[in-house]
Write a structure and sequence with these properties.
Elements lengths: L13 H10 L5 H20 L3 H16 L7 H8 L2 H8 L38 E9 L10 E6 L20 E5 L5 E7 L4 E2 L5 H8 L5 E2 L2 E7 L6 E7 L18 E2 L2 E2 L5 E9 L10
Parallel strand pairs: 1-11, 8-9
Antiparallel strand pairs: 1-4, 2-3, 2-7, 5-6, 7-8, 10-11
Helix pairs in contact: 1-2, 4-6
InterPro entries: Catechol_dOase_N (IPR007535), Intradiol_dOase_C (IPR000627), Intradiol_dOase_core (IPR015889), Intradiol_RC_Dioxygenase (IPR050770)
Family: Belongs to the intradiol ring-cleavage dioxygenase family.
Keywords: Dioxygenase, Iron, Metal-binding, Oxidoreductase
Length: 288
């Protein structure tokens, strides 16, 4: 005897049919996430009513995003960032006390394989740009120093370009480094003052959002990942307060506590920045 007929799909019941099928397999966070995603996706399709050709264009775009992603460039991360999804994930998971330094997002240019460097090292391997001295301290909520904290830093150069955007023009690991705080929780290094930059338009994500009219100019900033045993990992930016694009960051990552003054040193084009990172204790059982 033939089995029961499959439930038909129509414009009103499509997500319900999917949900019933998946619910029959049991419960769990993955199934609940899929049901929620499909329900919203089907609702959007019913609202926008794309033609089959328009739907194929969307599939083509997502395929191009995949093709544009590799070890040096992460177009999927860029898409998540520019849609505000990465910033929203950070916010819904941000349970840090107000005294702790706010977190932001890593962005598409992060590299985890940066070399360790001695305190005071110059991470500008080509020396191009106005000099910037960066120093700071890592401490807990009570103001106690955190010695041995790891600080990974990465930034664009004076032209607003990252090393992994120009592998043939910039030295490997230019403007990147991993430092460890000293016994007083302090760190310092030399670099160049970064420039703001336009989000890459040579890939499918930038081209699409540029066509849609979204502002794609990021304000000048330095990026950091700060880790220490027993503390929450902090990923954050420090922004140049003189940049005119602070109010339209396309990654939705500018927060008032992270906007800093780059102080001029003497008559030469040299600058100084000092900042204290405040880490919150890690909560037991917290999800990564």
């Amino acid at each position: 005897m033939a089995g029961p007929m499959a439930s038909p799909v129509d414009t009103l019941t499509s997500s319900e049919v999917f949900s019933r099928r998946l619910a029959a397999a049991g419960d769990g966070p993955l199934r609940q996430a899929l049901i929620g995603a499909v329900t919203h996706l089907h609702a959007l399709i019913r609202e926008l009513k794309p033609t089959p050709a328009e739907w194929r264009n969307l599939i083509t775009f997502l395929t191009e995003v995949g093709h544009a992603s590799d070890d040096r460039r992460q177009e999927w991360v860029l898409l998540s960032d520019l849609l505000g999804a990465t910033a929203l994930v950070e916010e819904v998971n941000a349970h840090r006390p107000k005294q702790a330094t706010p977190g932001t997002l890593r962005g598409p240019f992060f590299r985890a394989d940066v070399p360790a460097r001695a305190l005071g090292s110059d991470i500008s391997l080509d020396g191009v740009g106005e000099r910037l001295s960066v120093s700071g301290r890592v401490q807990d909520l009570d103001g106690k120093a955190i010695p041995g904290a790891e600080i990974i830093t990465w930034q664009a150069n004076a032209a607003g370009l990252y090393e992994n955007q120009q592998p043939d023009l910039q030295p490997e690991f230019n403007l990147r480094g991993l430092f460890r705080t000293d016994d007083e929780g302090r760190f310092h290094y030399l670099t160049v003052r970064p420039a703001g930059y336009g989000v890459p338009e040579d890939g499918p994500v930038g081209a699409l959002l540029l066509k849609a009219g979204l502002p794609l100019r990021r304000p000048a900033h330095l990026q950091f990942m700060v880790t220490a045993a027993g503390f929450e990992t902090l990923v954050t930016h420090l922004y140049d307060d003189s940049d005119p694009h602070l109010g339209e960051d396309p990654l939705f990552a500018v927060k008032p506590e992270l906007v800093c003054r780059f102080e001029r040193m003497g008559d030469k084009p040299c600058w100084r920045l000092d900042f204290t990172f405040v880490l919150a204790r890690a909560k037991q059982g917290a999800r990564a």
